[in-house]
Design goal:
Elements (H helix, E strand, L loop, with lengths): L16 H16 L54 H8 L3 H4 L11 H4 L1 H10 L28 H4 L2 H4 L11 E3 L9 E3 L3 H7 L31 E3 L11 H7 L15 H7 L5 H5 L16 E2 L8 E2 L21 H21 L2 H4 L3 E2 L32 E3 L6 H11 L8 H16 L2
Antiparallel strand pairs: 1-2, 3-7, 4-5, 6-7
Helix pairs in contact: 12-14, 12-15, 14-15
């Protein structure tokens, strides 16, 4: 097999199908070869790729083709690590990213593929994420026109377009993503963060599809802080929430909870900084990497070190000079971490336990003396001691709460649980929602 041999001639242009196939075959070989061989034929830069839209010169069609004069080996150099993009390091980190690891890219129907698959997100960006609109009670928002039965996980080509552009700029830089809320009376907000943060919230946002409000029968109650005392909340689904993907960004924007009257709702500096572009998701989630365990393209803050069973946290992003680096570093035991997380998880547990206590909430359930324990199937996952199993309220059964407004506490519990930073994203708003909900359930 032809090995890449050294040359000072510089680049040549890949003109045909065969050459590209050969190039691809070479990557395959190099990848399983072990130690890197001698320097490539065309030097460090490698051969240039086929020019033209849709990879036409290569004889087959890609999503978007290769940039003219693309130098393959600039990124594909296997163990002879490229020093511009260090692609192999990002690939290694990415293996442990939730995007790759959690495996839900089989959610590839028109209502799911837009966020769960590489293919679906590509379709959304070509049609313009900014053009997406939300209609309450209708399938709308981040939907795709087709299903993708052969789907791949969110990956390098979802967020970047390296073959088309020859670099790792963001695929989609259209900003100002709209974040809607299912709570009655709330208006859609526009997230004004920087392009990196916008990229994340194009998927990390509530989903409108297949919510409890869509369909012709068994429509669940729309959460509302102002419903009348005689209204009854009927909740038919365990998905009476923002799909785990929306609670985070809504919390960061300081809205989306059921805001009981008579309380104040405020936001912390993280919320302000995200919106005025001084902070972005990557600052905390893609901080200086720790191998493939945390930071960088693992997107993880929390990780379990080798040989340990307890979680450690990558605080590199917190402790930069612009942030906490100059005034009391964040550590596993510092107040701004340990105290905040303990307070929030404690309040989440307190609220959940009130809802599981018929002496507290029984007077509002129909039939009387029940509990607010509909289908909370996830653990608080912070201390890990409480898991609420799915209850018997399925099928024909329905959780009924009167006055309906009290069900807002259940909505807020899920806001705080699925906002999985446990108060770090926006301490003040999470605290406001939890305190107000606990107070509401303490009322006679
Ligand atoms: C700017 C960086 C960059 C350049 C230049 C580049 N690629 Fe890629 N390529 C990537 C990335 C990133 C991936 C995805 C790797 C992954 O998913 O882990 C990829 C994937 C591939 C794959 C799929 C590999 C697989 O195992 O799935 C092929 C084939 C490929 N590139 C061919 C080429 C060819 C041919 C050229 C030159 C004409 C080229 N690439 C130039 C970044 C680049
Ligand atoms: C194309 C859509 C998309 C984009 C863009 C995206 N994500 Fe995700 N993200 C997802 C999906 C879908 C999951 C869940 C994957 C699964 O369950 O298989 C996820 C999971 C995660 C997880 C793991 C969650 C867990 O429960 O462990 C983190 C952390 C994360 N994303 C952070 C980010 C950050 C930070 C950005 C921006 C730099 C980002 N994501 C951009 C779709 C996206
Ligand atoms: C608006 C983008 C978006 C859409 C549309 C979407 N998801 Fe998700 N989904 C996400 C993100 C992001 C996560 C990860 C959230 C996290 O861990 O913080 C996720 C998590 C999940 C999970 C794991 C958590 C859980 O709830 O068990 C499942 C399962 C899932 N989605 C299924 C679906 C299905 C089925 C559909 C279509 C009916 C769908 N999703 C549509 C963005 C979306
Ligand atoms: C969910 C979105 C997402 C995915 C998937 C993703 N990246 Fe990135 N990538 C980013 C973000 C955001 C940044 C900027 C990080 C920062 O500012 O610290 C980035 C930065 C980079 C950079 C540095 C850019 C530069 O010019 O220095 C490289 C290289 C890169 N990514 C390669 C990859 C590779 C290779 C993959 C696949 C293994 C990948 N990325 C997958 C979001 C993503
Ligand atoms: C100020 C730092 C910070 C910023 C900014 C930030 N996060 Fe987080 N985020 C965290 C921390 C800390 C956690 C909890 C991680 C843990 O417990 O492992 C977290 C948890 C998460 C999770 C759940 C991941 C998991 O492992 O369970 C997702 C998803 C997420 N954040 C998405 C985002 C998105 C999207 C943005 C930007 C819109 C963002 N975050 C901005 C600090 C931050």
């Amino acid at each position: 097999m032809k090995q890449l041999t050294s040359s000072t001639k510089g680049v040549t242009t890949v003109k045909n199908f065969l050459t590209v196939l050969t190039a691809i075959a070479l990557f395959g070989l190099v990848a399983c070869e072990g130690p890197a061989g001698p320097a490539g034929k065309d030097g460090a830069a490698g051969a240039a790729g086929a020019a033209g839209a849709k990879g036409a010169d290569a004889g087959f069609v890609y999503f978007e083709g290769f940039k003219a004069d693309l130098k393959c080996a600039q990124c594909h150099s296997s163990n002879d690590n490229d020093t511009t993009y260090r692609v192999i390091t990002k690939q290694t980190q990415y293996e442990t990213s939730g995007h790759k690891e959690l495996g839900n890219y089989d959610r590839n129907t028109t209502q799911c593929a837009g966020c769960h698959t590489n293919e679906g997100f590509y379709e959304r960006t070509t049609r313009g994420v900014a053009n997406e609109t939300f209609t309450l009670n209708a399938i709308s928002g981040p939907v795709t026109l087709q299903a993708y039965p052969n789907s791949s996980p969110v990956g390098c080509f979802t967020c970047h377009a390296p073959h088309k552009r020859g670099d790792f700029t963001y695929r989609d830089t259209v900003g100002q993503v709209k974040i809607f809320s299912l709570v009655a009376g709330n208006t859609t907000k526009t997230f004004t963060g920087n392009t990196g943060a916008q990229l994340c919230v194009k998927c990390h946002q509530p989903r409108m599809t297949s919510t409890f409000l869509i369909g012709t029968s068994n429509l669940s109650w729309q959460p509302s802080a102002t419903s009348g005392l005689t209204d009854t909340a009927k909740i038919y689904t365990s998905r009476w929430n923002n799909h785990v993907s929306g609670e985070g960004i809504q919390t960061m924007l300081g809205f989306g909870g059921v805001e009981f009257a008579g309380n104040t709702y405020s936001s912390s500096y993280h919320s302000t900084a995200l919106q005025n572009k001084t902070l972005e998701c990557a600052d905390c989630h893609m901080a200086t990497p720790i191998g493939n365990k945390g930071g960088g393209h693992t997107f993880k803050v929390g990780y379990v070190p080798e040989g340990s069973t307890t979680t450690s946290y990558n605080f590199a992003g917190c402790n930069t000079t612009a942030c906490h680096g100059t005034s009391g570093a964040i550590t596993a035991t510092s107040a701004k971490w340990a105290t905040v997380r303990a307070e929030m998880t404690g309040k989440i547990r307190q609220l959940a336990n009130m809802m599981l206590d018929s002496t507290v909430v029984g007077k509002w359930t129909l039939p009387k003396a029940g509990k607010f324990n509909p289908w909370i199937t996830y653990s608080v996952n912070a201390g890990g001691d409480t898991i609420w199993a799915a209850n018997a309220n399925t099928g024909a059964n329905v959780l009924q709460i009167k006055p309906a407004m009290k069900a807002g506490a259940l909505w807020n519990l899920q806001m705080a649980m699925y906002e999985a930073s446990h108060g770090i994203h926006n301490t003040a708003y999470t605290r406001s929602l939890l305190d107000a909900s606990i107070a509401e359930l303490k009322k006679p």
